[in-house]
Amino acid sequence: MAEPRLFYQDDCNLSLLEGKTIAIIGYGSQGHAHALNLKDSGCNVIIGLYEGSKSWKKAEEQGFKVYVAAEAAKQADIIMILINDELQADMYKKDIEPNLEPGNMLMFAHGFNIHFGCIKPPKDVDVAMIAPKAPGHTVRSEYQAGKGTPCLIAVEQDATGKAWDLALAYGLGIGGARAGLLETTFRTETETAGRQVHFKAMRKLASEHPSEKVGEEIRKLYSWNDESDKLINN
User: Fold this and answer.
1) pLDDT, tens digit, for every residue of 45-75?
2) Position 201 pLDDT exceeds 80
């Protein structure tokens, strides 16, 4: 791909999420952070979990309506899947696919299941990725501090012609656009060799970020060393 683009708050329109229901599937590290940040940004967020999940009570206590994953998917316009990669394909087939409607947006924080064909969405839905480059507790605490965590952003399928705008709005809703959203693809995000594309931009975001904590998380994630410097300077 060409030189990846960087997007910030001025590139995003949060109002595009007004009137839409966002289902966060999973309420673990990333799930709780996405959900709480979106809620604090004024979005309508519901949670999808499996029956008997230990996170059910916690999500309710933090102000969310909680449903089994199938019902959450049925109610939602935007569905963000934030459970473990190895569990996603079975859950998608059982709970999400039967409840998708044309024009819905299916979202991920990692490209694995789409890139390797484990999940094959229908052609009439948007497919996008927002991948924060820090653990969920940091995504949450940075948002609460008025800052944000840099994210990767990608659109795999733009059925509506609005996928990029909605993905950018989501990235702003979780606070990522405050720090920067770096364009990528599902393939590049997934494959180790492809991640060198991100080195230069992510190093820049890490060095400029007002939070030393987030900068360190990014540096650890991309394992910068002498070899990394050679890659980004070539």
Assistant:
1) 999 999 999 999 999 999 999 999 999 999 9
2) no
Question: Looking at the annotation, which residues are catalytic?
Answer: 110
Angle at 74 between CA 68 and CA 76, to 5 degrees: 100
Say which residue the tokens 């979990």 belong to: 49
Statement: the pTM of the whole predicted model exceeds 0.70: yes
Q: What torsion do the CA atoms of 51, 57, 59, 63 make, to the nearest 10 degrees?
A: 130
Q: Using CA of residue 127, residue 90, residue 176, residue 61, what is the dihedral sign?
A: positive
State pLDDT tens for residues 149-188: 999 999 999 999 999 999 999 999 999 999 999 999 999 8
